[in-house]
Design goal:
This protein is an all-alpha fold. About 40% of the residues lie in helices and about 0% in strands.
Amino acid sequence: MRNHYDFTKMKGRRNPYVKFLKRPITIRLERDTVNYFKTLSSQLGMTYQNLINLYLRDCALKHKTLHFNWAA
């Protein structure tokens, strides 16, 4: 390997995968829900945010809908 590399002649380019990056959002979840995903994520060895993202992505890909009745 060289001791010194000259990067002054390189042309920069934008990240081609920027459209695939995640978007940070704020969401309010109940403590029990967050604790459930945190416990599950520690068992699986991944972050709870990624686990929640994977679950929500699965719901979106399968077009799952929630069916419930409001109490009158």
